Records
---
Amino acid sequence: MKAEQMEQARQLLQEIYGYDSFRPGQEQVIQQVLERIDTLAVMPTGGGKSLCYQLPALLLEGVTLVISPLISLMKDQVDALRALGIKGSYINSTLARQDVTDRLNAVSAGDIDLLYVAPERLGDERLRRALMQAGLAFVAVDEAHCLSQWGHDFRPSYKEIPAWIYSFQPAPSVLALTATATPSVAEELRNAFDIAPDHSVETGFARDNLTFHVVKGADKATYIDQYVKRRQQEAGIVYTATRKEAEALQKSLQRKGVQVGLYHGGLSEEERRKNQEDFLYDECQVMVATNAFGMGINKSNVRFVIHASMPGSVEAYYQEAGRAGRDGAPAECLLLFSAQDVRTQRFFIEQSDAPQDRIEALYGMLQDMTGYCHTDGCLVENVLSYFGEQDVSACGRCGNCTREGERMDRTEDAQKVLSCVLRMRENYGKTMIAQVLTGSRNQKVLQFKLHTVSTYGLMKGTSAKIVQGFIEFLLAEQYVRLTLDEFPKVKVTPKGAEVLRGERRVEQFIEASRPAEVSDKLFEVLRACRKRLAQEEGLPPFMIFSDKTLRDMCDKQPHSMDAMLDVSGIGQMKLEKYGEAFLEALQQEESTAN
């Protein structure tokens, strides 16, 4: 029966989704779910997590319950399911009471394969009765990292999910899914759902279609304006740390003629819904938003994500940046860094009413994020190592790997900084160390008699800002570390001690930037065809075909309906609905070119 179900799953993969094979990890997860084995799936954004519960839901008896943190995910996913002919529904606070009743009745009658709910909805006794009437196939917990107190996006309501699941007799099997889980977070999730270590499926965090860059010292508004102009026909997201920054940037781009949307928690629900739909349906090119936007936004053709401000953790950054290129086609992720970003994130932490151990964890996450911005090594290697991947090699594609310039020996400067840290008894922060090294005569330096230490003025003639930037580099490369408290102090690491003893050299690279890619003409023709069809059907364009499918169509340029089936992402159902329209577009473009 197991082999028979997996064969059915492969057939559905081809017939409904148009793919010939599973992505890494999908087949193992689906097989375990079909065998009703509690499973943890850790896959990067765009790795195909939703397929891991959608396919089993079509093969198992009963309704599959999907617990999701944001209502935007529910609507997008259900719209996508319906476009594929799958019976999906959702229940959340946007619905009128009668609509909720109608949907619960449909669940009870067995007319729904997948039902999406928020964790806060689990206490609804009507929901419980409907699920018991229909029978629970299994429970999928999406964005499962929200359960972990040590994760970047902890939500208290998630802590109640395990007890709710185990209140059923017999308890349904569980599939916990996340794109961002450090080893400690993954262990916490396994413990919460009693998942055996060998039932975890971790495919790795690498996203080979994404290119990462960190840009320092740029005028952010000007840089973003110029970048968006170069990518005029492509969808992108720009993240900011604050609502005020988002509004200013949105107005700036709007004045330049960019079709730009705005999304943050201060807007009304109706404004957020409209702006989100405009972005999903390609009615606006760029969405400027705070981190209130994005989790679960199933838009596959986002070609760039720009962070105008540094987020507070590597997990948050990688999740937000990972919203680019969900279709597998090339996409770009840029982070525009300034020292003010660190102060902003520290302010957010200081305003938190979280317990002290959580506060310390947040400071630690911020240090790791700041380290990413200042690392001299491969950006991808830095992220993958953070998530616990071993033996990671340089990606060869990121801004650090591809820059032009020269590597400078900074051993002597590093020894000056490390000596100063020790002479100051490892009892001060980055700013004070930089001021002592540059010979500052400010009040605190004199008050604490730091002008008397032997390293005072060793780097006189260099600005304190530049020296502090060099200290950030030493932090990123782990020659020094910061204590985890409100006023972090710089400490020398064993690696830094080796530099002081002359046993290790310190080298730093002088960076350069890269130009952006340009779309080809045929791709734009197919995009226009896709948008026309989407408008006729009232769907977001990416639900017709993903950018990756259009790229593959450009490469293969099929001349018949049968040849269309060789294009990645085109199954029999979509071929019958859209094949002729795209064949006509291809033929017209070919005749124009000839």
---
Amino acid sequence: MATVKSLVEEWLRLDKNPITRAEIEKLYAEGNIDELEKRLRNRISFGTAGLRSSMEAGFSRMNDLTVIQASQGLCMYLLDTIPNAIVKGVVIGYDHRHNSETFARLSAAAFLSKGFKVYFYRKLVHTPLVPYGVKKLKAACGIMITASHNPKQDNGYKVYWENACQIIPPQDDGIRDAISNNLEPWVWDPNFVDNNELCIDNINEISVAYFEELKALSCHREDNAASNLKFVYTALHGVGTPAAKRIFETFSLKSPIHTKEQADPDPDFSTVTFPNPEEGKGTLALAMKTADEVGARVIFANDPDADRFSVSEKQKNDKWTIFSGNQIGVMLASIVLNNYKASGKPLEKLAMLSTTVSSRMLAKIAKIEGFYFEETLTGFKWLGNAAIDLEKKGYEVLFAYEEAIGFMIGDVVRDKDGINALGTFAELVVQLDKRGMNISEYLDELFKKYGYFVTENSYFICHSLPTINKIFDKIRYGENPYPYKYKLSYPTTLANHKINYIRDLTIGYDTSTIDNRPTLPVTDSSQMITFGLENGCIGTLRTSGTEPKIKYYIELSGSDKEKVTKELSNIVKGVADELLEPEKYGLGYRGE
């Protein structure tokens, strides 16, 4: 095994950035071996989410060197796997985070040095414009430099394949291997993209085409133009404001009222701790203040790279309701369904998708209404690729969503798109207002028609991977799994309810199939266990690929909302007390 000294020497040999060089030199001079081990011992892992980490020196972090190495590996993998990849080119975009433009420029330089055509967006863009550009330009791949809704110290490197979807296995493995074989920097010059004839900036052309395609999704522009409804919008210090203004114009909606403190890009996210609309009223406090001041009852929010979308509504008792991703999802699905019915096309040709941790309500709607529904693993890398596969089978896949406020409407982008969702939902609110309804009343109408689906989704914080693995092994193998780790011993009850179904996508075990093998993909690189109770409750525990969290998703449905809610609360308590045991394992609660 390499010594810390040799790891430091290798870093200093490769790194040409004086700031990150100085970080490692200082740590070494101080004798901070533990921190050097964390930074240098293991390489940042390239997975289906690409790269994401804090921006610091070290092989395990996001910095100039690791971005260059990732780009070189991706470049060589494209050359090996996609014919004419050099001519097809790559699309590269970036957001407003610290170092995003530099990382994008260094990425572009790697491809340009090998003769690739590079479509380099020279201004801040929201993430969906990268996969849209890949689709429109028929490029070999796309790269978006963003950490989405992560804290300010993080950045990321998201990759889209030639089908304009996020990469899935085995592409990630192939890219990872290619990175390992191309660690020596080819070129280290962020200005290499300037005045390079292979570097094309066509962001204006791509943006025009994107909004023209979105325009076709608007069905009520006359009503939109006539409405005097007030909407408040927040970009949460991200890049969404220009796109939000433009989608309102495209749908003939009156411009939203912007939360001025959060309207402009700010890489320090100065008014929020976590720039994620899912975090609740603390993150949306300024938007609610703005809404109160101007007399608006609806708030829309995008996350910083504007691929996620959130809705809040002020109720008659002056309290705010923040709708969950599942609730927004079924309301958007109802719009797509109603529009498809109005087209006169056969419903059996319509397909919708959601993930295994999302609400089962969409599956129930599909069963009642007669369209096709399919479930995938979590993440739009799976949803987008599944949509393309179903298209090949003759389906029109016009909606997909995941509970983490990600929505795909139509086929403009085979990825989540918070701007598309923003225009579509605003149009729904206008139509509801014509009927004299608010959003909550419409959601209740859907519940009465299809059943009350009550969900509880949250997480515990855990920064220790061994602890996380110990918790899941305990669930899987019992209290004392070692050394007899391979004898399965899942719990048989939870919160006094019998468990009659287990699916473990980490080890590949599913009690609902004849051979006990899951139909969904299995991966041992993350933890994911789903259980079903005798009362119909479905719960999933999983780890996050980008954050130190153990997430849980619990859902129960029935005809009596109060009874379902009470019973679900007991089950959620059981998940904590019986399965996760936060006090025993030192887990932090959400927001801590």
---
Amino acid sequence: MRKNRTTHMMAGILIIVFVAIFVVLTGRFIYIQATGEVNGVSLEEWAEQKRTSSYILPAERGKILDKNGMILAYDRPTYRMYAIIDETYSEDPENPRHVVDVDRTAEELAKVFETEPEVFRDSLQAGLQAEPPRFQVEFGNIGKQLTQKQKEEIEALGLPGIYFDESPMRFYPNGMFASHIIGFARETEIETEDGVKTEVTGIAGMERQMDEYLRGTNGYISYQRDLYNSKLLDPNEIIKEPEHGDDVYLTLDQKIQTLVDEALTTVEKKYDPERMTAVVMHAKTGEVLAMSSRPSYNPNNPANVENWYNDVVSTPIEPGSTVKMFTWAAAIEEGLYDGNELFKSGTYNVNEKIIPIRDVNEGKGWGLISYDEGFERSSNVAASKLVWEKIGTEKFLDYLHAFDVDKKTGIDLPGEVTGEILYNWPREKLTASFGQGSTVTPIQMMKAATSIANDGKMVKPYVISRIVDSTSGEVIEQNKPEVVSEPISKETAEQVRGLLRRAVEGEHATGKRFKLEDYSIGGKTGTAQIVGPDGKYMKGRENMIFSFLGMAPIEDPELVIFVSVQQPNLEIGEYGSMPVSFIVKNVMENSLHYLNIDPDESEVEEIERFEVPDFNGEEPEKIAQSMNENGIKVTVVGEGNTVTQANVEPGDKILPTKHVILVTDEPSMPDVTGWSKREVVQLAEMLDLQLESFGSGFVVLQSVEPNTPLREGSYLGIELLPPNEERDPVEETEENGSTEDEQIDGENENQDETN
């Protein structure tokens, strides 16, 4: 009885326990069924997530283009290769979707990559032998950043289990071209709520400055799928299209930028300077058409970069004598300037407590000369006397402020800094008049110079032309020229431009080497000392910054240019102005031709113009003979009997420098060797030719042989080179620069101009 009672009691306890467990489990099931949650996790959402695949639809990064629409930076697709090795991924054994034959796959891939099969075999075997075996494997760096061509070659092999992920890579088709302005972008890892993601991010230059506009917003696609990743019949597909980045158009002109880069590269090879800068700007709008610095880098592979800074906006230098144009402008604006007034050059001693100011020829000077001649000769004494005796040091400081040489220009480039006006002691106030002690950036000098080029109106420089929606083409933002102030009057600007012309063309000009062939140019040379590590000025004729600030055509400037070359390696008989003048002349001459600026007419104003006769129905040879007799170059296109088109109109009054092109009713290809691009463009427009040009300067090669009959729509390719490109242009400048005045000028420039 005792045993049965115990048995019944234990049985009852077990029944109660089992009932309790049943009630708890049933209650739990009822709760789960009622709420659809487990530990706060929605079963419906969990199931939805498990059977839903989501993929990012990457946004295309916006392009960077020049003012004419030439692409400077864009996303080029690259591919990452991976292999699926899990055989459960293959639904149909006859059409496998995983790697079936490791050895064959490795051998075929090795042929494409020109490497050993073990590179791929080891990765595949390691994935298969892992515990647990991997679903897929990748191939390290060799399988990344593949080109479209490589991808297509691999796909053509028909290897099962080999797949690709597409990702963009930023590409810069022109290499080093304007790299400090464009900058570069790279893939970077960014932490988000969903984990670490890889995005292309701007690192430097415009890529960083305009990253917000360029990057865009990714989209996505999601759908419900089965175990084998195939869409269900009702996949509940959701697609959000990506918002592609905006396109950024710069004010840069690819042709002019190329001229600048090519000139700097030539000088870099010849003289191996420590640093160089060059910037070309539209005189009336402030648009930067070209800007370059050396050392530079290739944004496609920015490795071992010597200089990240854009020196034009980020590196202040002593401007040297280029600042004298503003000293003379201040004196003229104040009504205190008489260009014919004489002063004693050589040495200027204000008082015994101030170190004397000396002219560039060791203080010997040139005796009594006029202030106009003093500007030609770049006299430090003349500049100092103007400030100390006529303008007054405080008033001159007001003008330096008015020209904004103490302020940032506000240019839309990252990293702009400002120089410093050193103006505490009497001698500093004197030396500021000729560019010693105080510092400025090249872009500050360019901004100030626009007031002289633009009849007193100083304009703000800018690099971003407009921002455009890449999808719709709608202009989102548009930059416009901005006049920031008028530090001088129109009359003063005109008078200073006259002085700048004398500084290039005058009898005693220091800038004779900068004279152009077809255009008048005015400007001021500069030779500034460099402060060494010990805080003292460095010695030696090469330890200088040689520069030029000028504008052309000088009567009504279209372009302003600044070039500086620091510490070039000069041979015996070479001067610091040689590398600078080579850059200025090549860039300005060819840029003005490219922009279709009419050659300067100032030297032929006295020559009688020729009136174009009525050539309709006339014989071409008869018209050509009449023009030739008046000194006009004429090219007759074809062997026809009548003139059908011409680049002039009957009644036009033309100068003897004009090249007239007469097209006959039977046109054939003329010999265009030596023609400018503008002349070939005129010919192509008249004959409706498909013109393609390579290079800049003048024609040296044409794709269509002379006397070949031409039809509308015919293709014509031409190659152009700057003048004398086949010879060493710098050595040629040296050979031709043999006049006595130029030799004296060279000696002067290599003296301590700022003392």
---
Amino acid sequence: MFDDKDADPAAIKELEEKFDPEVRFRPLGKVAAGIAATLLFLLSCFHYYTAGFGLLREVNHRGVHLAFVLSLIFIVFAATKKGQEQLYPSSLWRPFGIPVIDWLLAIAAIAASLYVPYIFDDLAFRVGNPLPIDVIMGTVMIVVLLEATRRAMGWPLPVIAIVIMAYGLFGQYAPGVLVHPGADWRMLVNHLYLTSQGIYGLPVGVVATYVFHFVLFGVLATRIGLGRLFIDIAMAIAGRYSGGPAKVSVFSSALLGSISGSSIANTVTTGALTIPAMIRIGYQRHFAAAVEAASSTGGQITPPVMGAAAFLMIEFLGVSYSTIITAAIVPAFMHFFGVLCQVHFEAKRLGLRGLTRDELPRVGAILKRDWPTVIPLIILISILLQGFTPYLAAFYAITACIVIGLVNPLNRITWRDVLDAFILGAKYALAVGAAAATVGIIIGVVTLTGVSFKIAYMVTSTAGTWASAIAPFIPFGIMGVSTLTLLITLILTAMVCIVMGCGIPTTATYLIMVSVAAPVLGLLGVAPLVAHFFVFYYGVLADITPPVALAAYAGAGIANANPFRAGNTAFRLGMGKALVPFVFVFAPSLLIVVDDFSWFRFFLAFTGTVIGITALSAAFAGWLAGPLYRVERWLLGIAAALLVAPEVVSTSVGLVLVAAVVARQLFFSGAEPEAPDAASA
């Protein structure tokens, strides 16, 4: 059923480049490609060596990292769309096929990146009173950083950075509570360039010491066959059930996502196999694309890797890695459970079959062939759980990948493959490196102006006013003013996260929203861990939220489906991910590691959420044990909203509504209604 010819590497690469600007590299001639490959390999070697044998002094390490990342972006990313598609011959104005301006920008990036850690030697005496040369170098750094970020991931993030810098400069003209005295360019550059509160701040530090290593690990783990093992295991476990390929998509994306933080890469990698198979057994094309996209976005919230956000949380919150992955377990389960429920009900509604015994691989044969590929992942997790640093764990995991790949006769790789993996891993890390530094600009202005607390006051005041107006109309006093205020604040925050995430990668969205939105939630008594998870989950949701649902559009490209329809369906399939953050804000025990954890509140929230997600999935699909009347779908939708509110009264009412629909299905089915066409939308 899963035909290898569906997984054409060239087609997968083309789709990934089409929908993910972070891997849209320009074609290079032989000499330029050699220069880029050498620098990329050295960048990976630098991070691999320092992870195992000791990091440089903080600012030096970040400076070297930025020098490599920013200069390489000007070599491998073109300034225009035409430059991304066309290979130019070498000439006076295009040495080795790359414009002179790009070489100059690369050199400027190196100089500006290394100026602070290696040339600016009397930092303690000049911070707050920069010399003209300091301002010049800082200006160069900001310009090359914004242009590098634009090339690597488009306009949205640089535009936000420019707007926030304008606010820092002209804050005296801002309206209302947003007003501040303003800063001149000299002092703004001083704060963003010469201190650890800006470009050289925490975001770049996390990428340079954690994220890069896990990107490299993911590339190597996939190269030695761990991704294939995950897909085959998922097929052996889930393929036999109704609508088997769709369930394989959910399980394989969950497993593969545990080592990869990219929604789009997961979509095109597993989707190349699962989407054609889903279409062959009867799923509509847009639904098949949506299933893969919704499943793949779960990779960023699935332990143990969780993309970059897990390690950013470690630094921001000052908690252990085990705390973060423990907190992520239940919400990640809820996301995949929600997608699986909708896939199952859709399969039942359409009467789709599973895979036959002959079409399924054997678990024993899979493990016999690929079991060594799991060893690096086991090493990674075990070292992390022992409390060692993430980069040291990544060092040993990467080393294990290399050793196992070289000695395993069934999945043997060569030293050339290792070289290619080091080059590709560095390439994939360039965009997030630039994004982290640009987010440093945004965070720097936020700390300089104190705007986050002003925004927090505005949002909570507005939410409180609305809550006071709405509360008298809530029946039975289910929600008081304080609860409604928090709910409205969460809705506003979620909307901003989704809008921000439409044009900005998850990591950048998380960093910005933590700086701006976390203080808002903190004013309402939300614990920092809970607030961080909330904004992170809604940032991830943007990958399947129209109009810029990039993961869904990538899936639609494989399925030859309508992209907007696929995006709408993917968002519907991901509703579990949309509901669960509200649940763990009102019932933090769902994250397990919170201070006031209670088993009673945990089981109340867990049970209510599971039943609520099931009810909502049935309402969307128009099917439970059989077809549903329209009124039953509405009742299940209302029940779902009540069940995910972790209160005894609301849970009880929700259970009564679900029980009524189930009773009608089981005992009074009579003449069944037709499943509505809208159920498959």
